Amino acid sequence: MTYITGDTHGFYDDTLDRFAGAGVKEGDKVIICGDFGFVWSVGSESEINLKKLAKEKFTILFVDGNHENFDMLERYPVVDYCGGKAHKVADNIYHLMRGQVFEIDGDKYFTFGGAYSIDRYMRTEGYSWWPQEKPSSEEYKEAGENLEKVGYKVDYVLTHTIPESMIYRINKTPDTHDAELTGYFEWLYGKLDFKQWFAGHWHINRSFEDKFHILFDKVVKLK
Predict the structure, then answer these.
(1) Which of 11, 27, 47, 219 has the fewest C-beta atoms under 10 angstroms from its C-beta?
(2) Architecture category of domain 2-221 in CATH
(3) Helix crossing, 45-53 with 12-22: angle to 10°?
(4) What are residue 111's phi and psi, to 5 degrees?
(5) pTM (2 decimals)?
(6) pLDDT tier at 120 (50, 70, 90 boundaries)?
């Protein structure tokens, strides 16, 4: 069984309670739509909690959000996971990198994490904020190449933030600092042939047309 949920922010007890409440069990997969937050700092509570998660009997897959320690994430080995590039954090934990198409249990997933931190002014670069939160030109290029290979047709889209038009639909105003990414997602929203799109970031649970889902603490069972 595959489940999808929103931000976990490194909170171990809340995360495990959320998974248990949804019925996640041994052998299942749980996908987190960014702000995983367990890869944060060495010798900290987050490192202890990451080691505990690594002992679980289910698999955790996550796209990156904006609140991630990207310097630490990038130290993990890049491996092929179900046909796409991933950082292997543990035997049961994988970071699904940007611009990839994965084939998981017969379904194609396009992944593109990242977002702008509106609280950046309160954070310190290299300690609580990293510039890699915003995608690079190489990541956009690789996304295009991989989507071309599948004819811009996938089953599921996994992102952290959302297309510009969706920001308006949740009664928010798009941030100009994030315009490149949300504009790209707006273009993809019209270009892609997809079944469902899942995102996090906004700390709400909202769905539109049974096709676009913004998740926070809600857990959706896919199959």
Answers:
(1) 27
(2) 4-Layer Sandwich (3.60)
(3) 30
(4) -120, 135
(5) 0.97
(6) confident
